Amino acid sequence: SSESAQEESSAMRMIFIGPPGAGKGTQAARLVAHYLIPHISTGDMFRAAVTEGTPMGQEADRYMKAGQLVPDEVVIGLVRERLAQDDTKAGFMLDGFPRTRPQAEALAEALNADNLTLDAVLLLEVPDELIVERIVGRRSDPETGEIYHLTFNPPPAELADRLVHRKDDTEEAVRSRLEAYHSMTAPIVPFYEGEGVLKRVNGVGRPDDVTSAIRAALG
Ligand code: AP5
For residues 140 and 120, what is the distance between their CA atoms, to the nearest angstrom? Predict the structure, then answer.
């Protein structure tokens, strides 16, 4: 119908790339509230599967705990299914996917098949030396999904008992996650640069300043 064609033409399709702890989840939550698009975080989807104890969750948990990437075929299948859901007609914010060259190719294939293009690939840049501090101090609220930091965004005292510290937020796992980022994920950046959709954003500074930088980059 013309209505759905209109919906699709105004749809915003975005990807967030960046090292672990760069602030992708924090910023994605703000962007999806602004653009009214679904927030698709593969990390959140895997953590939900781990909590539910599904076979996929059990498999993913082994990799996540060690700070390693979950195998491409598992992630690609999961994202394909998610993108087939109706709410993505309004667009989407992919957070933490793609993370490897095969994942980027699978996404391009899925979008091409539906004649869709990406509006922006946001690369959130934060130097490694700031990452460990951000990750080790992170706490999340499993009930609201809210992300806090003991120093940079302290949670309200009354929530203290229910906040969780992710199993992969240890210094050791973070080192592996950074290594995976530099060896597997950073190489997909030139692919999007070549497509002319890459926007580099400085992820250092207060979260509000980073949000302003993202808004400016999106124009
Ligand atoms: P995932 O959940 O995607 O984790 P990640 O990429 O490592 O990113 P994080 O969630 O750790 O950080 P973030 O950038 O969202 O930062 P946040 O906003 O929380 O993936 C986890 C695992 O799942 C992977 O290791 C892998 O095993 C698996 N996986 C997921 N997707 C996969 C895929 N596609 N392929 C294969 N495997 C996959 O911020 C961090 C902290 O900093 C918070 O405490 C926050 O409050 C604070 N903070 C945020 N902004 C600022 C700021 N500007 N200044 C100071 N502090 C800040």
Answer: 27
How far is Cα 123 from Cα 1, in angstroms, rounded to an integer?
Answer: 35
Instruction: Give the helix/strand (H/E) hosting 7.
Output: helix 2-9
Choose the residue to mutate in 50, 51, 101, 153 for probing ligand 1, maximizing ligand atoms within 8 Å of C-beta: 153
Alpha carbon 93 to chain centroid, angstroms = 8
Q: Does the beta carbon of 19 lie inside 6 Å of ligand 1?
A: no
Whether the CB of 188 sits within 6 Å of ligand 1: no
Cα 41 from chain centre: 5
Instruction: Round to whole Å and give the CA distance between 215 and 29.
Output: 14
Q: What is the pLDDT of residues 49-94, one digit of tens each?
A: 999 999 999 999 999 999 999 999 999 999 999 999 999 999 999 9
CA 216, chain centre distance (Å): 20
Mean pLDDT value of segment 84-108: 97
pLDDT at 2: 44
